[in-house]
Structures are given as C-alpha cells and as structure tokens.
Amino acid sequence: MSTHLWYALNLVLRYDRTMIETASSFQPPLFLRNTHLMTLVPRFWPRDTSLAGLPQESRFFTVGPDTQLRGFCHWQDDRTSSPTAIVVHGLEGCSESPYMRGIAAKAFRTGFNVIRMNQRTCGGTEHLSPTLYNSGLSGDYRAILAELAHRDGLDRIWLIGYSMGGNLVLKAAGELYRSEPALSGVVAVCPNIDPTQCARALEQPRNWIYHRHFLVRLKARLRRKAALLPGKWDLAELDRIAWISEFDDRYTAPDGGYRNGADYYDRAGARHVLHSIAVPTLIITAQDDPFIPYSMFTVPLIQRHPKIRMVAPRHGGHCGFFHWGHRGEDSYWAENRIVDFLQERA
Q1: Dihedral angle at the C-alpha atoms of 33, 37, 40, 41, nearest 10 degrees?
Q2: Nearest to 166 by CA among 198, 127, 132
C-alpha cells in the first residue's frame, strides 16, 4: 500500500471514529428514546432564553425587490475581528424560537457575533415581503452574507440552520462553492435536503400532530398576508385543503415561481448542490427523526464528502437532542456540539 493511500485511509478512519464518538456522547434517558417525546419535550422544558447581558440591534437586510428580512444582531465589542454566526430557523419558527435564542447565547459567549434571522414573513414581518417563504430561497442568505462581507467587512461568517433553515444554508453554501471567501462554514440540524421525501413522511398518520401544527399555522400566515395584499391569493379553497402538499401545490409553489408542488419539492432541495460545498460543514440529524428520513443522509455523496461531517445519533427526534447535562453542559446536546464545531474550526 502506498504512503499516500495509507495516509488517506487513516484520515477516513479517524474521521469516522470522531463521528461515532460524537454521536455516542448523546445518551438520552429511556423515556426520551421515543421519537415523539424527544421531539416535543425540549420545546416545553423550562429554560432561560432571556439573552440577558447580550447587546442587541435590529437590522433589515434587503434581499430582493420590495423584500427585506429582519435580523437581530448581537455584536461583540470588536465585531470585525470576531467570527460571525447567522442563524436561520425552521418551518413556522422565527428568530424568537427557543432553539434560536439558545444557540445565540452559547455562540455569543464563545466570542461570536450572532445574527438571529427571520425568514420572509416570519416573526411578524409579513409586511416586509410581497411573497411567501419557501425552502428554495437560499438566495436570501447569499445576499445577507454578501452584505455582511462587503459592507461590514466581516470575513469569517458561519451559516447555521435548523430543519428548513438547514436546507437553506446548505443550499446557499453549495451554490456559492468558492465564490465567497467570507463563508467559513455551515451547520445544519435535521435539514430537509429532499423536500419530496420529507413531505411524504410528514403526511404519514403517525405524524398527524406535526402535520396539523404546520398546516394550521401556514393557513393562518397566508390569511395575514392576504389581508395585507388583497386579491393576490385566492383563498376560496383554503379551508378545504387538508394536506401540506396540497397547500404547497396551490400556494407556495406558484408564489415561488415553481410549476407545481412536485416541481417545488424537487428543485428546492439542497441535495442537488451538496457536492459543491467547499467549506467545513456539520450536519446533525437523528436516525429516528419522525419526518426527516435518515436514509437521505446515508448516500455516498454525504458519507464520503471531504468537507461534510455527519453526526447522527440513534435517538434525537426532530431537532430535540435533549439529555441530562453533564461535564458542565446543559441539556441541549446539539447546541453544544454546534459550539464545539465552531470553536474547533474558528
């Protein structure tokens, strides 16, 4: 065996061992090894999300015609010499979601500037965009990255996304390839990299509680948007829509410029551009996620990608990853692993 081949094999083995060891550090209590309890309990578990002591500045980013996204910036005293983390929430979340505030506090306290973004129309920003939000709007985050790099002079920027936000940041990184030197890396937690598979899983009977939650909230958001822009959307059929795929086919897809729901689901997935990611990337997902199928992440493209570190504990639910804290950590395992990755790479 040649020296180069032996060296490469050792790198692969060391990388695999690191991923296994990292995943094995997540040891949830027995009652949380149920995927639904793991998904739901962390959302209601009491925690301090006050962001006490963190400076905060509201900022509007122009990302398209008549379209702005609102972010909340937590700047270090010397922002230009500090690395920056842009955090993007998931479907029907916002900048105020507990996981957004949780990771913001941790990243800031390790020396990062942090910007908690609202996707289009989220977090009370329906009036800032004439369009709905969708899983394919990665251009929004490329625009924000460019503004921070070229107007603010920030040169070490990380994109962090949860669920739908995870797909968006991975897609943005793949589309950028090496064209934006300020992009230092990406972290995605339970990203829906193939929306076709994820929508199909979400509509399974076992996932009715999540499906109903998302569909009810999407309908309510559309009604708020329609009140601001009378006549833009025909709501006559809205009450009769019973499936999220119907909603996306009828409203999300045409609003986003797609032919139909199937076209939207296919083209919006980051899976098409993962091969082009050129920066250090961490994907955290759970093998028991109820509606982000683990099989999406077992393909060679991801498993053998030189820039992607894949960590997939057996349990974790959807963006849950809650266990009893140890070694000075709190109970939010994924947040702590994100901070470890940022510190290691930054």
Answers
A1: -80
A2: 198
* Mean per-residue pLDDT, 190-213: 98
Provide the terminal-to-terminal Cα distance of the chain, rounded to the nearest Å.
35
Q: Which of helix, strand or coil describes residue 163?
A: coil
Nearest Cα neighbor of 196 from 263, 136, 132, 114 is 263
The Cα 266–Cα 270 span in angstroms is 9
- pLDDT tens sequence across 2-25: 554 444 445 444 445 555 557 888
pLDDT in tens, 67-107: 999 999 999 999 999 999 999 999 999 999 999 999 999 99
Residues contacting residue 188 through CB under 8 Å, at least 6 positions apart: 160, 161, 162, 165, 166, 167, 169, 170, 281, 282, 283, 284
| pLDDT number for residue 20 | 55
Residue 11 corresponds to which tokens in the numbers above?
Answer: 């790198």
Domains recognised in the chain with CATH numbers: 53-194+273-345 (3.40.50.1820)
**Separation between Cα atoms, residue 187 and residue 58, nearest integer Å:** 23
User: What letter would DSSP give residue 256?
Assistant: T
Q: Quick one: pLDDT band at residue 119, thresholds 50, 70, 90? A: very high
Instruction: Give the bridge partners for 189, in sequence order.
Output: 162, 284
Asked whether 198 and 291 are in contact (CB, 8 A), the reply is: yes
The type of residue at 112 is: F
What's the confidence (pLDDT) of residue 149? 98
